[in-house]
Amino acid sequence: MSVTLQMPPEPVHDRSKIYLIGGGIASMAAAAFMIRDGDILGPDITILEALDAIGGSLDAAGSSDTGYVLRGGRMFESKYLCTFDLFASIPTLDDSKSVTQEIVDWNNTIETSSKSRLFEDGHRHTAPEFGLSERHILTIERLALEPERLLNGTSIEDQFDASFFKTNFWLMW
């Protein structure tokens, strides 16, 4: 008995249209993976965003005169393996290197680190206690799991007692 091995056919672009909801990092990553790994053409992917700015919680705005705001700023560390794998396949705007290499170069040039998560009354707290009671922790856990529809339009003040709003946890977040 003989077996003939056949090579799979070349990918055929069926020109499927892809629509991603939200212009945040998840949609941008999904689009990049579809282009890189799914053989989808870039023009066949549409990202729909309700706001005037793309980026989701990683959006940025401002100028050198007024300053910049980046709502969800992140410090990239070596542990972001999936992110760096994706970024390694995306060239920088000047096509001189990958986005991963650009981030690594930036981190080597400008060494950033966070020495403190909390400043209060002009004093740095390097490792602050959150100050949460067991009741606070259980409420946070419940809220993380509870479907929004079951909250019936309640506010955060309806969920926590006044002591929660005096904790370092609340102050930090």
How would you describe the oligomerization state of the chains in this entry? single chain
Radius of gyration: 23 Å
Low-confidence stretches: none
Number of helices: 6
The helicity comes to 25-40%
Q: Describe the largest sheet.
A: 2 strands, parallel
Secondary structure: number of strands: 6
Anisotropy-based shape: extended
With strands numbered from the N-terminus, the spatial order across the biggest sheet is 1-2
What is the residue-mean pLDDT, rounded to a whole number? 83
Q: In sequence order, what are the helices and strands, one letter per element?
A: EHEEEHHEEHHH
* Structural class designation: alpha+beta
Kindly, what is the distance between the CA atoms of the first and last residues, rounded to a whole number of angstroms?
69 Å
Strand content: 5-15%
